[in-house]
Amino acid sequence: MIINPIIPVWVMLFFIPIFCVCLSHEKNKRIRQLIIILLIFLINLRVMVRDDNAEVISNDLDVLFVVDNTISMIAEDYNGDNTRLSAVKEDIKHIVEELEGAKFSIVTFDNAPKILLPYTRDKDIIYESINIIQASTYVFARGTTLNTAIQGMETQLESSSKSENRARIVFFFSDGEITVEDKVDTREFGALKDYISEGAVLGYGTDEGGHMYVRTDSFGSYQYVKYQGKKAVSKIDENNLELVSDSLGIDYINMNKHSNIDKKLSNIKDGVTYKFDVVDKSSYQDTYYFLMVPLLGLLVYEFINFRRGV
Fold it and tell me: What is the value of pTM for the model shown?
């Protein structure tokens, strides 16, 4: 048995005495309220029990997500005024669901590449990693070049190549914008081609472009990026994205619609053999939902009494 708290335990322990001070002085009501506090505390602990007999679907795919998290990726020109990066996160989750059973890894790149997630099938960890992807802070930004991604890609592709009989799939997410004196290094990207079985370069952004509402420091301050006194505009550069896709030997897909990736995913799945296997002998199952029924029952009971003035 393990615990995986939703809110840190020390935070809960800090607030519990405060809640207890506010309890009713009427004995029966006080007992019910104490039980409610205890149930909330136990649910928050997220107690998980080991399941050694769990069968997990698996396949022979190693899927590498390469995510551009430079400032331009929060330009607000996706499906209205949503950011490109928010679209990327949703598309990654969609791919994870469609290619269930694969191992997934995430590499991000801004000023430098970062291996955010080594290869894993653990969907909880995969989704947590997706959710924490953020654009770089404006004060630390040093310009954009797609070549920054190469080192991180090479590290993960080489790691995957050590396992036999596995297909390596690469999805490269970017708007293609380069803001420094640089150009796509087709030779270095091309050197990765032999590692890759399938995949796509996925382009985000529009020709009209969008404004970027960025973090200006580490304390939660935000403002729009400005150029010569006006809001700066970032536009998609499909020429750069096509250079990357040609070098890697995979397709380029404009992702102005969420469904544009579905045909590619269908083609990938057609060549995959799925099996059920015990791939994680340390698999754990949540138990907190068993406590939700009595908690909801007590909360409803307290609400009814409150409305009655009891």
Answer: 0.71
